[in-house]
Amino acid sequence: MQEELKQVEAIYQLIIEFFVQYSFQIVGAVLIFIIGFMLAGRVAKGIFNLCQRKGIDITLSKFIASVCRIILVSIITIIALSKMGISVAPLIAAVGALSLGAGLAVQGLLSNYSAGLNIILTRPFVVGDTITVQGVTGVVKEVFLAYTLLVDE
Q: In what order do the strands lie in the sheet with 136-143?
């Protein structure tokens, strides 16, 4: 019984030491992530509004805003992880290797996304146009990377 109490006390001391040593780093990383996430949302919204004021197509505006948000959230996550003391270099290398493997595995799917990106950038049709695709006629409601949404009239 005495030995079990010593083990519990040792675990308790280990937990106390951990929180005393790393609590400010954890709190700082969480604050960086929360503030950065909110800031990324506002920046994306600002970029979308700027694109709309400049008369850029709504689909391209949404695409640019979402890409900027994803990039900012990725950077903020790396900063927060490094603030916690986690080495991000091996993490970035692992993400790169996984991305290469995943890219090779889903080549067909990626070709659909690249076709969607081509539609967004070249704009052969925009939201509100009436188009016919394989005998189906509809009004373009929204253009996404993976698909284009048509509405029957």
A: 130-133, 136-143, 148-151
**Per-residue pLDDT tens for 19-39?**
788 788 888 889 999 999 999
The helix or strand, by DSSP H or E, that contains position 149, with its residue range, turns out to be strand 148-151
Confidence at residue 136, expressed as pLDDT on a 0 to 100 scale: 84
Q: What residues have CB less than 8 Å from 128, skipping those under 6 apart?
A: 139, 140
* Pairing mode, strands 148-151 and 130-133: unpaired
Strand, helix or coil at 7? helix
> What are the E-state strand segments in 7-135?
130-133
**Digit-coded pLDDT (tens) for 45-103:** 999 999 999 988 888 888 889 989 999 999 999 898 888 888 888 888 888 888 888 87
Tokens representing 55 are 């008369």
From 99, 111, 84, select the one nearest 24 (Cα to Cα). 84
Tokens representing residue 36 in the block: 């950065």
Residues 6+ apart with CB under 8 A from 26: 84
| 100 in Cβ contact with 60 (< 8 Å) | no
* Residue 97 backbone zone (phi > 0: left; psi -120 to 50: alpha; other: beta): alpha
